[in-house]
Specification:
Length: 851
């Protein structure tokens, strides 16, 4: 602590940068990093490595010599978990990149993109089109936007092609650049106003390619002495752009090229190996890091720069609030010192947080100076601010001892405050426990507090599941007391689906482990687990898992309908098993039969039933509702001639259920006649609706004993959207009521994709705030954030508060000049983490009150 500022490097008068060592690296590489193709995922993500650089530079060599290695951010650092390796046996490799879901993309010269998971296990592949195949790939980039992970390609014909979302592949060929005779010196992908464009440099000219045109642009305020552009870098948020010219000048400005931040002459004319942004969110300093062979330089809004000597070849990984530096022996993090840490630890600082930290230290020494420091803070009425500064600074520290020292100071200061809310302090303690656990070298996810808050706990848990760190993920869920459906149950379901894929263990062992671990845990779909086992070719295991589910009394069909043809066989095996499971398996078998009926044509369906006597008997006994589209003759097949498989008592004939419905409809019709005779118009209209519902086309008995609204909701929950819309039109359900019903049902079902399509089908009669509220209610803030910008201005503050985006909420409140909305946002601000935002709101409110 005494030498805390020893590694601080000033950039200007008010900004400091420091470089922290995260891990000691033990790669065991055959070559230096400069001879490798390196790609690292953001947010402390894994590292992809190709040890043969000849594939990158274009030299002819054997493709089988390349070994892409997936190294999940430091897990292997001391040999605890060795890196995963895969022998490359495909085409010539051009580029490596990572998706937002941490899948490794390997882009080949022929335009084929191979997708691997974290463990170098092949998942799938896709092609960038015939044109790329014919002209080959010269250069490629993987980028991230709000649409997903995209790939941009420069072909041998000097044309650009890109796909903004590889999960919904739609290839776009960008316009030709006039006069382009050779590959551009540098190019980058920008995302502006939900449109993805390519910016490229040809000499001293910059060209911007969008969907339809190629335009020449120029950076404002560029020095006349600046020569051709050799390098460009886009910030992590796609908002800023940096350009390096052959005169050694770095130009920094907005990505829209409408505003210039600064310009700096490095004095080095050779192009850097890498140039990336290093800027903290909401920071006044904007800085760029440049890396040459043995030198690292940080330049920003200052006439001076910071220089670091590199002992070995390094690779820079841009992050949200800094830059990771990878080398053969070290993994470091370069970042700007946050304001809270500067205020507390700066030499001779008299900030409230600094005084409180000293007071706590003196108190431990039993010195009277503790009272003097504390009295000075209280006389200035700055004790709440001091506590908040210590809490906030603790979040930015990587060393646990420093974190503890700051939190002890905050706890000490809280003792002298009457009404200090404890939530911020408790939340920070929880967050630091989680961060310290995942930063451990055996886990190796070096997330910062800022990145963690941006990523959210849900995404972090998903990443732990991807790494198959199930015990740690479960402990975090239990520690944070997350709802079971969101936490433990979901992770256990992932674990079980992974467990059934393990070929080295017998079906009996795997089924026993799953049934013992899962038991009757709420929210776990044994159907998905059994289906996964069946898809892996382990039908016997699927049966044992389903038997275990029924043994625990888990409600619902234990086998998913995706089992399809094999599902009927599995259901038959379960029916013949001991244990008195006939009641449950009868439902299961009938579910599979109905699925086959919907999936197969009529001839194939009844031929399949002929080979399963028990299933055929069950179908004859229960049958299905009578509909005009399924006459009795449909049950005749070529094999049986005119013999009716369903018999006289088939469900398509006059089965019990149909007779019951017809009787109820007849009774309704009689009641309707009596109401008309009695001239009771109100009751007659209601009865007419019920009768029309009973005889309605396409939904049979599903609506009996339910109200109209419940019927619509049930149909949506079951995925029958067209039938629900038919009822909506037939019974003239008000638009607002129907929209409310549908979004609630879709959210309950978890069908977020359908909900987004529905929101775009036409202008919402209920607005878009209900979409936000429903998504938040179902613990899905990621989906809720999609609708918040579409909420009208008068409700936008509430929407952003609901999704937890306090910064956007504050901007909306200030823009509307609403004191009530500013107060609402202030009430949600934490003294420890949102101090700057609270200060901004207080200033805006004070200005508003003056008027």
């Amino acid at each position: 602590m005494d030498c805390y500022t020893a590694n601080w490097n000033p950039l200007g008068e008010e900004t400091f940068y420091r470089k922290l060592e995260l891990y000691s690296m033990e790669w065991g590489l055959r070559e230096d990093l400069r001879d490798c193709v390196v790609a690292a995922a953001p947010y402390g993500g894994p590292i992809g490595l190709d040890e043969v650089s000849k594939l990158r530079t274009g030299c002819q060599s054997s493709a089988t010599a390349a070994e892409p290695s997936c190294v999940p951010g430091g897990l292997w650092a001391l040999g605890v978990t060795p890196p995963c390796r895969s022998q490359w046996k495909s085409g010539r490799l051009v580029h490596l990149g990572w998706t937002a879901g941490e899948d490794l993309l390997c882009i080949q010269e022929d335009g084929t993109v191979l997708v691997y998971n974290l463990f170098c296990e092949f998942k799938r592949h896709f092609s960038m089109g015939n044109e790329v195949l014919q002209n080959h790939v010269l250069e490629a980039q993987v980028f991230h936007t709000e649409f997903g992970t995209g790939v941009a390609i420069l072909t041998g014909a000097l044309r650009f092609s890109l796909a903004t979302n590889i999960d919904d592949l739609k290839l776009r060929r960008l316009p030709e650049v006039p006069g382009l005779q050779k590959p551009p010196a540098c190019w980058a992908v920008l995302s502006q106003d939900r449109v993805t464009v390519v910016l490229l440099a040809v000499g001293q000219e910059l060209f911007l390619l969008d969907n339809t045109s190629c335009s020449v642009v120029s950076p404002p305020g560029l020095s006349p002495s600046a020569g051709p552009f050799l390098h460009m870098a886009v910030s992590f948020t796609h908002r800023h752009l940096a350009l390096f010219s052959d005169s050694g000048t770095v130009w920094m400005g907005t990505a829209s090229l409408k505003e210039k931040f600064c310009e700096f002459n490095t004095g080095i004319r050779s192009p850097p190996r890498q140039m990336v942004w290093c800027t903290r969110p909401r920071s006044r300093q904007r800085a760029v890091v440049l890396a040459w062979e043995r030198q690292l330089m940080v330049v920003g809004n200052s006439s001076e720069c910071i220089r670091f000597v590199l002992d070995e070849d390094s690779h820079l990984v841009p992050e949200l609030d800094g830059v990771r530096i990878l080398s053969r022996t070290c993994h470091e993090f370069l970042h700007e010192i946050p304001e809270a840490s500067q205020e507390i630890f700066r030499i001779a600082s008299m900030a409230p947080g600094a005084l409180l930290l000293e007071a706590q230290k003196e108190y431990e020494k039993e010195s009277q100076k503790a009272d003097e420091y504390l009295r000075e803070i209280r006389e200035q009425q700055l004790l709440p601010e001091a506590v908040g500064q210590c809490i906030e600074a603790a979040g930015y520290e990587h060393e646990p001892e420093t974190q503890k020292s700051l939190l002890r100071a905050a706890s000490f200061g809280k003792c002298f405050l009457d009404k200090f809310p404890p939530e911020g302090f408790v939340r920070m303690c929880q967050d630091l426990r989680v961060l310290n656990a995942i930063r451990d070298y055996q886990i190796g996810i070096p997330l910062t507090f800022t990145q963690y808050k941006q990523l959210t706990i849900e995404v972090l848990l998903d990443r732990l599941v991807l790494r198959r760190l199930y015990p740690l993920a479960i402990r975090i869920c239990e520690f944070l007391r997350l709802p079971e459906m969101q936490g433990v149950s979901r992770i256990l379901a992932h674990w079980a689906c992974y467990k059934v894929q393990q070929k080295d263990k017998s079906d009996e062992e795997v089924a026993q482990a799953i049934n013992q671990k899962l038991g009757d845990t709420a929210g776990i779909s044994y159907s998905d687990i059994a289906t996964r086992a069946y898809d892996c070719g382990r039908a016997e295991l699927a049966i044992k898992v389903a038997q275990g589910a029924l043994g625990w009394g888990v409600p619902g069909c234990p086998l998913g309908c995706s089992v399809a043809h094999g599902g009927l066989w599995v259901a038959m095996r379960l029916f013949s098993s001991p244990g008195g499971l006939w009641g449950a398996m009868r439902v299961c078998m009938y579910t599979v039969v109905l699925h086959l009926k919907n999936e197969l044509n009529r001839g194939s369906f009844f031929m399949t039933l002929q080979n399963q006597p028990v299933a055929l008997s069950l179908y004859r006994q229960v049958g299905t509702p009578k509909t005009p589209e399924h006459p009795k003759a449909a049950l005749r097949t070529p094999k049986t001639g005119n013999r009716d498989l369903g018999g006289e008592n088939s469900g398509f004939g006059t089965g019990d259920w149909d007779g019951r419905i017809e009787g109820r409809v007849a009774a309704l019709q009689n009641a309707l006649d009596e109401f008309y005779k009695a001239k009771n118009d109100f009751a007659a209209k209601g009865g007419a609706g019920d009768t029309r519902a009973g005889t309605g086309r396409g939904w049979g008995h599903e609506g009996w004993d339910l109200s109209l609204h419940d019927t619509v909701a049930t149909l949506i929950l079951d995925g029958h959207h067209k039938r629900a819309e038919q009822l909506y039109r037939d019974f003239r359900i008000p638009d607002k009521r129907y929209w409310w019903l549908k979004i609630n049902a879709l959210a309950t079902r978890g069908d977020w994709e359908e909900m987004e399509k529905f929101s775009k089908s036409k202008k919402s009669p209920i607005g878009y705030l209900p979409f936000v509220e429903v998504a938040v209610k179902h613990h899905n803030r990621y989906e809720a954030k999609k609708y918040a910008p579409r909420v009208p201005p008068e409700q936008r503050v509430r929407a952003f508060v609901l999704v937890g985006d306090l910064e956007q909420a504050a901007e909306a409140a200030i823009e509307r000049k609403s004191e009530a909305e500013m107060s609402l946002v202030l009430a949600r601000c934490s003294a420890g983490t949102d101090g700057a935002l609270a200060e901004k709101l207080n200033r805006a409110r004070a200005q508003l009150l003056k008027k």
